[in-house]
Amino acid sequence: MRTPTEDAAKNTAPPDTAAAGLALFRSQVEIRLLEKRAYDLFLQNLVKGTSHLSLGQEAVAAGFAVAMRGDDYTFCTYRGHAHTLARGAPMVGVLGELMGRKCGLMEGKGGSMHLTSVRHGAMGSYAIVGAHLPVAAGAAWSAQVRGTEQVAVCFFGDGATNIGAFHEALNFAAVWKLPVVFVCENNGYAISVPIRLQMANPDVADRARGYGMVGVTVDGTDVPAAFAVCKEAVERARRGEGPTLIDAKIRRINSHTSEDNQLKYRSKEEIADAAEHDPIERFRSWLVERGWIAAEDAARIQAECDQEASAAADWAEQQPDPVAEDALTHLFA
Ligand SMILES: Cc1ncc(C[n+]2csc(CCOP(=O)(O)OP(=O)(O)O)c2C)c(N)n1
Ligand SMILES: [Mg+2]
Predict the structure, then answer these.
(1) Contact predicate 216/226, CB 8 Å
(2) Which pTM value belongs to this model?
(3) What is the pLDDT of residue 11?
Protein backbone atom coordinates (compact mmCIF):
# COMPACT_ATOMS: atom_id res chain seq x y z
CA MET A 1 0.00 0.00 0.00
CA ARG A 2 1.23 3.49 -0.79
CA THR A 3 1.74 5.68 2.22
CA PRO A 4 -0.16 8.98 2.10
CA THR A 5 3.24 10.70 1.86
CA GLU A 6 4.18 8.80 -1.32
CA ASP A 7 0.83 9.62 -2.88
CA ALA A 8 1.42 13.27 -2.14
CA ALA A 9 4.80 13.36 -3.82
CA LYS A 10 3.68 11.94 -7.15
CA ASN A 11 1.64 14.85 -8.46
CA THR A 12 3.89 17.75 -7.56
CA ALA A 13 5.26 20.10 -10.20
CA PRO A 14 7.48 23.19 -9.97
CA PRO A 15 6.24 26.51 -11.38
CA ASP A 16 5.60 25.70 -15.00
CA THR A 17 5.37 29.17 -16.46
CA ALA A 18 7.66 32.17 -16.36
CA ALA A 19 4.69 34.21 -15.08
CA ALA A 20 4.26 31.95 -12.02
CA GLY A 21 8.02 32.01 -11.45
CA LEU A 22 8.18 35.78 -11.58
CA ALA A 23 5.16 36.16 -9.29
CA LEU A 24 6.90 33.93 -6.75
CA PHE A 25 10.14 35.88 -7.03
CA ARG A 26 8.53 39.30 -6.68
CA SER A 27 6.43 38.21 -3.72
CA GLN A 28 9.50 36.98 -1.84
CA VAL A 29 11.53 40.08 -2.66
CA GLU A 30 8.68 42.31 -1.45
CA ILE A 31 8.54 40.42 1.84
CA ARG A 32 12.29 40.54 2.33
CA LEU A 33 12.62 44.25 1.62
CA LEU A 34 9.56 45.22 3.64
CA GLU A 35 10.89 43.28 6.63
CA LYS A 36 14.35 44.82 6.32
CA ARG A 37 12.65 48.22 6.31
CA ALA A 38 10.58 47.19 9.33
CA TYR A 39 13.79 46.33 11.19
CA ASP A 40 15.29 49.75 10.36
CA LEU A 41 12.12 51.38 11.66
CA PHE A 42 12.37 49.29 14.82
CA LEU A 43 15.94 50.52 15.38
CA GLN A 44 14.67 54.09 14.96
CA ASN A 45 12.02 53.36 17.61
CA LEU A 46 9.28 53.94 15.05
CA VAL A 47 7.97 50.37 15.34
CA LYS A 48 6.70 50.05 18.88
CA GLY A 49 7.04 46.77 20.72
CA THR A 50 8.79 43.91 19.07
CA SER A 51 8.33 42.21 15.72
CA HIS A 52 9.07 38.73 14.44
CA LEU A 53 10.78 38.74 11.08
CA SER A 54 10.98 35.82 8.69
CA LEU A 55 14.19 36.45 6.78
CA GLY A 56 15.02 33.17 5.03
CA GLN A 57 11.46 31.83 5.49
CA GLU A 58 9.76 33.72 2.65
CA ALA A 59 9.38 30.89 0.12
CA VAL A 60 6.52 29.08 1.81
CA ALA A 61 4.37 32.19 2.34
CA ALA A 62 4.92 33.25 -1.27
CA GLY A 63 4.39 29.73 -2.63
CA PHE A 64 1.01 29.40 -0.99
CA ALA A 65 -0.12 32.89 -1.93
CA VAL A 66 0.63 32.19 -5.60
CA ALA A 67 -1.06 28.77 -5.44
CA MET A 68 -4.20 30.01 -3.65
CA ARG A 69 -7.43 31.48 -4.98
CA GLY A 70 -8.22 35.10 -4.05
CA ASP A 71 -11.10 34.06 -1.77
CA ASP A 72 -9.16 31.38 0.13
CA TYR A 73 -8.28 31.92 3.78
CA THR A 74 -4.89 32.33 5.45
CA PHE A 75 -4.28 31.98 9.19
CA CYS A 76 -0.83 32.71 10.56
CA THR A 77 1.17 33.42 13.69
CA TYR A 78 2.79 36.55 15.12
CA ARG A 79 5.44 35.92 12.42
CA GLY A 80 2.87 36.91 9.84
CA HIS A 81 4.11 39.94 7.91
CA ALA A 82 5.11 37.64 5.06
CA HIS A 83 1.81 35.80 4.77
CA THR A 84 -0.30 38.93 5.01
CA LEU A 85 1.72 40.81 2.43
CA ALA A 86 1.88 37.83 0.09
CA ARG A 87 -1.93 37.62 0.04
CA GLY A 88 -2.01 41.17 -1.33
CA ALA A 89 -2.20 43.49 1.67
CA PRO A 90 -0.54 46.80 0.71
CA MET A 91 2.87 47.73 2.12
CA VAL A 92 1.54 50.98 3.59
CA GLY A 93 -1.11 49.04 5.48
CA VAL A 94 1.49 46.63 6.91
CA LEU A 95 4.19 49.21 7.75
CA GLY A 96 1.57 51.69 8.95
CA GLU A 97 0.23 49.04 11.33
CA LEU A 98 3.72 48.24 12.61
CA MET A 99 4.18 51.94 13.36
CA GLY A 100 0.77 52.16 15.04
CA ARG A 101 -0.54 54.65 12.50
CA LYS A 102 -4.17 55.13 11.54
CA CYS A 103 -3.36 54.12 7.93
CA GLY A 104 -2.41 50.64 9.21
CA LEU A 105 -4.38 47.51 8.33
CA MET A 106 -6.18 47.65 11.66
CA GLU A 107 -5.95 51.41 11.98
CA GLY A 108 -2.95 51.18 14.25
CA LYS A 109 -4.64 49.20 17.00
CA GLY A 110 -3.23 45.73 16.35
CA GLY A 111 0.48 46.02 15.65
CA SER A 112 2.95 43.58 14.17
CA MET A 113 1.62 40.45 15.86
CA HIS A 114 -2.01 40.81 14.80
CA LEU A 115 -1.92 41.70 11.11
CA THR A 116 -5.27 40.95 9.50
CA SER A 117 -6.77 41.85 6.15
CA VAL A 118 -10.08 40.08 5.68
CA ARG A 119 -10.45 41.66 2.24
CA HIS A 120 -7.33 39.73 1.15
CA GLY A 121 -8.34 36.51 2.91
CA ALA A 122 -5.69 37.09 5.60
CA MET A 123 -7.84 36.06 8.55
CA GLY A 124 -5.50 37.06 11.32
CA SER A 125 -2.12 36.62 12.93
CA TYR A 126 -2.34 34.82 16.25
CA ALA A 127 0.11 35.46 19.10
CA ILE A 128 -1.10 32.52 21.21
CA VAL A 129 0.94 29.60 19.91
CA GLY A 130 -1.33 27.00 18.27
CA ALA A 131 -4.59 28.85 18.98
CA HIS A 132 -5.43 29.39 15.33
CA LEU A 133 -5.29 25.76 14.18
CA PRO A 134 -8.85 24.96 15.34
CA VAL A 135 -9.98 28.36 13.99
CA ALA A 136 -8.58 27.47 10.55
CA ALA A 137 -10.30 24.09 10.72
CA GLY A 138 -13.52 25.95 11.56
CA ALA A 139 -13.15 28.24 8.55
CA ALA A 140 -12.58 25.20 6.34
CA TRP A 141 -15.66 23.53 7.82
CA SER A 142 -17.68 26.65 7.06
CA ALA A 143 -16.48 26.56 3.43
CA GLN A 144 -17.38 22.87 3.23
CA VAL A 145 -20.89 23.48 4.59
CA ARG A 146 -21.42 26.45 2.27
CA GLY A 147 -20.04 24.48 -0.71
CA THR A 148 -17.81 27.36 -1.80
CA GLU A 149 -14.69 25.26 -2.57
CA GLN A 150 -12.61 27.73 -0.58
CA VAL A 151 -9.47 26.41 1.12
CA ALA A 152 -7.99 27.46 4.47
CA VAL A 153 -4.22 27.43 4.87
CA CYS A 154 -2.84 27.53 8.40
CA PHE A 155 0.81 28.40 9.09
CA PHE A 156 2.52 27.67 12.41
CA GLY A 157 5.95 26.87 13.80
CA ASP A 158 7.55 23.65 15.01
CA GLY A 159 6.86 24.72 18.59
CA ALA A 160 3.13 24.81 17.89
CA THR A 161 3.07 21.12 16.99
CA ASN A 162 3.37 20.25 20.67
CA ILE A 163 0.31 22.19 21.78
CA GLY A 164 -2.95 20.34 22.50
CA ALA A 165 -4.87 22.39 19.92
CA PHE A 166 -2.63 20.92 17.19
CA HIS A 167 -3.98 17.44 17.91
CA GLU A 168 -7.59 18.58 18.19
CA ALA A 169 -7.50 20.55 14.95
CA LEU A 170 -5.76 17.87 12.89
CA ASN A 171 -7.96 15.07 14.14
CA PHE A 172 -11.14 17.04 13.52
CA ALA A 173 -9.99 18.12 10.04
CA ALA A 174 -9.09 14.55 9.03
CA VAL A 175 -12.35 13.03 10.28
CA TRP A 176 -14.42 15.62 8.42
CA LYS A 177 -12.10 15.73 5.36
CA LEU A 178 -11.95 19.50 5.67
CA PRO A 179 -10.41 21.68 2.94
CA VAL A 180 -7.51 22.85 5.10
CA VAL A 181 -3.73 22.73 4.74
CA PHE A 182 -1.63 22.70 7.92
CA VAL A 183 1.81 24.13 7.24
CA CYS A 184 4.57 23.76 9.80
CA GLU A 185 7.22 26.34 9.03
CA ASN A 186 9.87 24.32 10.77
CA ASN A 187 12.77 26.63 11.55
CA GLY A 188 14.13 24.24 14.18
CA TYR A 189 13.60 26.59 17.12
CA ALA A 190 10.85 27.64 19.47
CA ILE A 191 12.39 30.95 20.53
CA SER A 192 15.73 29.56 21.79
CA VAL A 193 14.74 25.91 22.27
CA PRO A 194 16.16 23.69 19.53
CA ILE A 195 13.96 21.03 18.02
CA ARG A 196 15.87 18.13 19.64
CA LEU A 197 14.70 19.41 23.03
CA GLN A 198 11.11 19.87 21.85
CA MET A 199 10.23 16.49 20.32
CA ALA A 200 11.69 13.01 20.06
CA ASN A 201 10.84 12.73 16.35
CA PRO A 202 11.74 15.95 14.50
CA ASP A 203 9.85 14.87 11.36
CA VAL A 204 6.52 16.53 11.91
CA ALA A 205 4.98 15.08 8.73
CA ASP A 206 5.27 11.58 10.26
CA ARG A 207 2.39 12.52 12.53
CA ALA A 208 0.00 12.88 9.58
CA ARG A 209 -0.31 9.12 9.26
CA GLY A 210 -1.58 8.91 12.83
CA TYR A 211 -4.45 11.22 11.91
CA GLY A 212 -5.15 9.58 8.54
CA MET A 213 -4.15 12.53 6.43
CA VAL A 214 -1.45 13.15 3.84
CA GLY A 215 1.91 14.26 5.22
CA VAL A 216 4.67 15.83 3.14
CA THR A 217 8.17 16.97 4.04
CA VAL A 218 9.79 19.60 1.84
CA ASP A 219 12.88 21.78 1.84
CA GLY A 220 11.22 25.16 2.37
CA THR A 221 14.26 26.99 1.03
CA ASP A 222 13.96 25.23 -2.33
CA VAL A 223 11.35 27.47 -3.94
CA PRO A 224 10.33 25.30 -6.92
CA ALA A 225 9.96 22.21 -4.69
CA ALA A 226 8.07 24.14 -2.01
CA PHE A 227 5.73 25.71 -4.56
CA ALA A 228 4.93 22.30 -6.01
CA VAL A 229 3.97 20.99 -2.59
CA CYS A 230 1.87 24.09 -1.78
CA LYS A 231 -0.02 23.83 -5.04
CA GLU A 232 -0.77 20.14 -4.73
CA ALA A 233 -1.97 20.48 -1.13
CA VAL A 234 -4.29 23.37 -2.01
CA GLU A 235 -5.67 21.47 -5.00
CA ARG A 236 -6.18 18.32 -2.90
CA ALA A 237 -8.19 20.32 -0.39
CA ARG A 238 -10.21 21.98 -3.15
CA ARG A 239 -11.00 18.60 -4.75
CA GLY A 240 -12.60 17.57 -1.45
CA GLU A 241 -9.85 15.05 -0.65
CA GLY A 242 -9.15 16.50 2.78
CA PRO A 243 -6.33 18.07 4.71
CA THR A 244 -2.55 17.87 4.31
CA LEU A 245 0.15 18.35 6.92
CA ILE A 246 3.29 19.89 5.46
CA ASP A 247 6.62 19.99 7.26
CA ALA A 248 8.58 22.72 5.49
CA LYS A 249 12.15 22.69 6.78
CA ILE A 250 13.38 26.25 6.77
CA ARG A 251 16.12 28.30 8.35
CA ARG A 252 15.54 31.50 10.25
CA ILE A 253 18.31 33.97 9.49
CA ASN A 254 17.15 36.59 12.00
CA SER A 255 16.76 36.20 15.74
CA HIS A 256 13.39 35.10 17.20
CA THR A 257 12.25 38.71 17.55
CA SER A 258 13.84 42.00 16.66
CA GLU A 259 14.96 42.19 20.30
CA ASP A 260 16.69 38.95 21.29
CA ASN A 261 20.36 38.06 20.87
CA GLN A 262 20.45 34.74 19.04
CA LEU A 263 24.16 34.27 19.74
CA LYS A 264 23.07 33.25 23.24
CA TYR A 265 21.62 30.02 21.86
CA ARG A 266 23.22 29.34 18.47
CA SER A 267 26.58 29.76 16.81
CA LYS A 268 27.72 32.33 14.26
CA GLU A 269 28.41 29.42 11.91
CA GLU A 270 24.82 28.22 12.10
CA ILE A 271 23.48 31.69 11.34
CA ALA A 272 25.90 32.03 8.41
CA ASP A 273 24.75 28.64 7.14
CA ALA A 274 21.12 29.80 7.27
CA ALA A 275 22.04 32.87 5.23
CA GLU A 276 23.79 30.67 2.68
CA HIS A 277 20.53 28.78 2.12
CA ASP A 278 18.76 32.02 1.27
CA PRO A 279 15.73 30.89 -0.76
CA ILE A 280 15.52 34.12 -2.72
CA GLU A 281 19.08 33.95 -3.95
CA ARG A 282 18.74 30.26 -4.86
CA PHE A 283 15.51 30.93 -6.73
CA ARG A 284 16.95 33.93 -8.56
CA SER A 285 19.70 31.65 -9.95
CA TRP A 286 17.08 29.02 -10.86
CA LEU A 287 15.05 31.58 -12.84
CA VAL A 288 18.13 32.97 -14.58
CA GLU A 289 19.36 29.47 -15.53
CA ARG A 290 15.97 28.71 -17.07
CA GLY A 291 16.06 31.95 -19.04
CA TRP A 292 12.83 33.10 -17.33
CA ILE A 293 14.48 36.25 -16.09
CA ALA A 294 17.63 38.14 -17.03
CA ALA A 295 19.97 39.04 -14.17
CA GLU A 296 19.33 42.77 -14.88
CA ASP A 297 15.57 42.25 -14.65
CA ALA A 298 15.94 40.48 -11.30
CA ALA A 299 18.01 43.43 -10.07
CA ARG A 300 15.37 45.83 -11.40
CA ILE A 301 12.59 44.00 -9.52
CA GLN A 302 14.69 44.19 -6.36
CA ALA A 303 15.24 47.93 -6.82
CA GLU A 304 11.51 48.50 -7.49
CA CYS A 305 10.48 46.60 -4.36
CA ASP A 306 13.06 48.47 -2.28
CA GLN A 307 11.74 51.77 -3.58
CA GLU A 308 8.16 50.66 -2.86
CA ALA A 309 9.06 49.72 0.74
CA SER A 310 10.88 53.04 1.28
CA ALA A 311 8.02 55.07 -0.13
CA ALA A 312 5.50 53.15 2.00
CA ALA A 313 7.57 53.66 5.15
CA ASP A 314 8.05 57.38 4.47
CA TRP A 315 4.38 57.91 3.74
CA ALA A 316 3.17 55.91 6.74
CA GLU A 317 5.53 57.76 9.06
CA GLN A 318 3.80 61.03 8.17
CA GLN A 319 0.33 59.64 8.92
CA PRO A 320 -1.53 60.38 12.16
CA ASP A 321 -1.79 58.05 15.15
CA PRO A 322 -5.22 56.78 16.17
CA VAL A 323 -7.02 59.05 18.63
CA ALA A 324 -8.61 58.11 21.96
CA GLU A 325 -12.13 57.79 20.48
CA ASP A 326 -10.84 55.14 18.04
CA ALA A 327 -10.46 52.76 20.98
CA LEU A 328 -14.23 52.25 20.86
CA THR A 329 -14.55 51.55 17.12
CA HIS A 330 -14.49 48.06 15.58
CA LEU A 331 -15.72 46.50 18.79
CA PHE A 332 -18.69 44.21 19.04
CA ALA A 333 -20.53 42.89 22.03
C1 LIG B 1 0.37 29.27 24.26
C2 LIG B 1 1.64 30.03 24.22
N3 LIG B 1 2.71 29.60 24.92
C4 LIG B 1 3.89 30.28 24.89
C5 LIG B 1 4.00 31.42 24.15
C6 LIG B 1 5.34 32.17 24.09
N7 LIG B 1 5.96 31.96 22.78
C8 LIG B 1 5.90 32.91 21.85
S9 LIG B 1 6.64 32.43 20.44
C10 LIG B 1 7.05 30.94 21.06
C11 LIG B 1 7.83 29.94 20.25
C12 LIG B 1 7.04 29.30 19.17
O13 LIG B 1 7.90 28.60 18.32
P14 LIG B 1 7.43 28.06 16.94
O15 LIG B 1 6.05 27.54 17.06
O16 LIG B 1 8.47 27.11 16.46
O17 LIG B 1 7.36 29.34 16.00
P18 LIG B 1 8.52 30.29 15.47
O19 LIG B 1 8.57 31.44 16.42
O20 LIG B 1 9.79 29.52 15.44
O21 LIG B 1 8.08 30.74 14.13
C22 LIG B 1 6.61 30.82 22.38
C23 LIG B 1 6.83 29.64 23.22
C24 LIG B 1 2.86 31.87 23.44
N25 LIG B 1 2.90 32.98 22.69
N26 LIG B 1 1.72 31.16 23.45
MG1 LIG C 1 10.12 27.47 15.22
Answers:
(1) no
(2) 0.95
(3) 44
